Amino acid sequence: MAINRSVLSGLAATETMPCSRVKKSGRYEYLQIVHNERVGDRVKQRVIATLGRLDRLRESGQLDAMLSSCARFSEHAAVISAAREKSVTPEATVHIGPPLVFQRIWQQLGLPKVLQGLLKDRKFEFPIERVLFMTVLHRLMVAGSDRAAERWCRRYAIDGIDGLELHHIYRAMGWLGELLPEENQHDHEGLPPRCRKDEIEERLFAKRRDLFSELELVFFDTTSITFEGEGGEELGQYGNSKDHRPDRKQMVVGVVLDNTGRPLCCELWPGNVTDVKTLVPVVDRLRKRFHIGSICIVADRGMISQGTIEQLQAKGRNVRFILGARLRSVKEIREEVLSRGGRYHEVHPPRQTSKDPSPLKVKEVHVGDHRYIVCHNQEQAAKDRHDREAILAKLEEQLKRGPKSLIGNKGYRKYLRQTKQDVFVIDQQKVKSESRFDGKWVLRTDTDLPAAAVALKYKDLLLVESIFRSMKSILETRPIFHKCDDTIRGHVFCSFLALLLIKELESRFEQRGWHVEWRRLLDDLDELQELTIAVDEKTFVVRTATQGDAGKAFQAAGVALGPSIRQQ
């Protein structure tokens, strides 16, 4: 393992080296702690503390006690001095920041107890809970394959993973994804059978159930994740790829958030299942799994169809909804909703950063017994208009070069009208029609919530989109190399658990009014290391100083760091 000497020498440079002196004043001598400071060409002593009269310190035995303490300090000073002079080579270096913070959150969420409860009747020759924590931590820090995790963990101080081998990781993934016995299978029409990870989700929710009177609001969205290779026995199928990889098999992953924004559960479908077929089965299973009475589901426009809405409104289902609607393809919205007059009311969503949404304008429109909320964002409208004008300017240039330059550009073609063979002009009527949608989106709901509340709840659906961005960028869940459905389910669920840890830490930062960039925070935590060095036939462990926002993470997690130097 390569050792970065600058880490240790940098720590040494931050330490002060005080010394003692005896100062005579009148009849008595006083013992002082001083610090030598260079001022120009001269060295001056700055008094840090006066310990008392020397004769009294001797008589009381305090001097001997202080000398003993100073002896211990001198050992530490020797370590620092050796580091400064680079006269020692660290025997080992391990990263300690991420394991300390996320292990504490892992414990506080109750994951060890949940896992141990499910494992009590199973006999594994390795600690599955430890393997799972290591895998989740790997997803958080660097992502990559499970094969890479086995090598990565050797550089981190993670308790309980001595002797870890790659096949242990694969077996742990398989255990997470193994199907439950038939007696534990609920009606799963439209969804894959229940597996071990479902029990973990349910027990985690039960541990914090007392925080809610009712799980009345949930957010749901899906994405597709591509495979390398065959993609399991059944999960991997060709479908409508949101990764824009129709050449690869994929699966569909849905994530549900509760009303606090915390991941509640995830569901997996074969890659050929369309979004519109996922919503109702998820709602029905949610109510059974988490013993929910009434529920309001918030979902994006890809989930909506008249058939879906009719199923949600079926007698006895007791489900309310806030669903994004398709502006251009639904005739009722295009010709009725957007054409209705009415007064907009301004809504001010909470803004934490300059990138957060500007104030919204909302109005309510009824068409028959259908209730719609029209939302308008002026900043987004200006952007939409600017983007369209840029397209039209480029289109004008291409028209001058002839019709062949237009082939294959769908974004350009929608603004064209063919007057005769091979003669195209910009369709001004189409441009005008398209401008009606600038900065607007439409929601359909059957709730009794005020229009402003409906709009703000739908804006919260961005949390799910953020989850998927994390899953695909930070955690790099895709592409997946596993060949068995069980291990695939386990692989994805580890990413889900990583997201749960992220959200928990983010929530604690928000409670304190702290706003940090996530990737930078992880880098700051990763800078915290422990180095093992030998000085004068003794072994010491030296901890580097915290960097950036790492200290805030320790505070939020409730972790107290030990001394910077200790003898092993």
Describe, in plain words, how this protein is organized in 3D.
It contains 20 helices and 18 strands. The chain is an alpha+beta fold and 568 residues long. Among the domains are: 1-89, no CATH class; 336-447, no CATH class. It has a 9-stranded mixed sheet, sandwiched between helices. Strands 4-16-17-18 form a 4-stranded antiparallel sheet. Helix 1 (5-14) packs antiparallel against helix 3 (62-85), helix 5 (111-119) crosses helix 9 (196-207) and helix 8 (166-177) crosses helix 18. The model is unreliable at 1-16 (pLDDT under 50).
Keywords:
18 strands, 20 helices, 568 residues, 41% helix, 22% strand, four-stranded antiparallel beta sheet, disordered N terminus, single chain, alpha+beta, nine-stranded mixed beta sheet
Which percent band covers the strand fraction?
15-25%
Q: Biggest β-sheet: count, sense, barrel? A: 9 strands, mixed
Alpha plus pi helix count: 20
Please tell me the overall pLDDT. Answer: 81
| Low-pLDDT segments, ≥5 res | 1-16
Concise summary:
Among the domains are: 1-89, no CATH class; 336-447, no CATH class. Helices cover 41% and strands 22% of the residues. The protein contains 20 helices and 18 strands.
List the helices and strands and how they pair.
Elements: H1 5-14, E1 19-25, E2 28-39, E3 42-53, H2 54-60, H3 62-85, E4 92-95, H4 97-108, H5 111-119, H6 128-141, H7 146-152, H8 166-177, H9 196-207, E5 217-226, E6 250-257, E7 263-270, H10 279-289, E8 295-299, H11 306-312, E9 319-325, H12 331-337, E10 345-347, E11 360-367, E12 370-377, H13 378-400, H14 410-413, E13 416-420, E14 423-426, H15 428-435, E15 440-445, H16 451-459, H17 462-474, H18 485-511, H19 518-526, E16 529-535, E17 538-543, H20 550-557, E18 565-567
Parallel strand pairs: 5-8, 8-9
Antiparallel strand pairs: 1-2, 2-3, 4-16, 5-6, 6-7, 9-15, 10-11, 11-12, 12-15, 13-14, 16-17, 17-18
Helix pairs in contact: 1-3, 4-20, 5-9, 6-7, 6-8, 6-18, 8-18
